Amino acid sequence: MTMENSSNSVRSSKWKLPLMIAGFVIVVSLVFYFVFEGTKNDIIINNAGEKIEAKTHAKTVGEALQESGIKLSAHDEVSPAKNAKVKDGMKIDYTKANQLTIVDNGNKEKVWSTKKNGW
Fold first, then answer.
1. First-last CA distance in the chain
2. Phi and psi at residue 72, to the nearest 5°
């Protein structure tokens, strides 16, 4: 064996273990990623006529809405209830409440409503 062949052999074996470790880390990372994504529940949120399709690991409806960027207030309407457990294929109806002022014979009263129009 010549000195040149011996030197190439040492260089190639020097990188063999780090490359194997890097490959192993990449494969394990991909497996965890696909398992993580695959275990999410598919949900549909109806937000005032807008249909939002989402995937979530949220445990409750309230958490799923929050993940989707919807901030619930005490007067908003949500069905199923915000503390209901999320299930795959679940449909969630959300309607934001608006504050209205009712004037009756000069008396003003503020109320919250989720209705679009009419009473």
1. 95
2. -75, 135
| pLDDT, tens only, 17-38 | 889 999 999 999 999 888 887 7
Q: In what order do the strands lie in the sheet with 90-95?
A: 50-56, 41-47, 90-95, 77-79
pLDDT at 45: 94
CATH of domain 40-100: 3.10.20.90
Token code pair at residue 17: 């273990």
- Asked if residues 64 and 43 have their Cβ atoms less than 8 Å apart, the reply is yes
**In sequence order, what DSSP letters do the residues of the chain get, joined into one string?**
--HHHHHHHHHHHHHHHHHHHHHHHHHHHHHHHHHHHHTPEEEEEEETTEEEEEEE--SBHHHHHHHTT----TT-EEES-TTSBP-TTEEEEEE--EEEEEEETTEEEEEEE--SS--
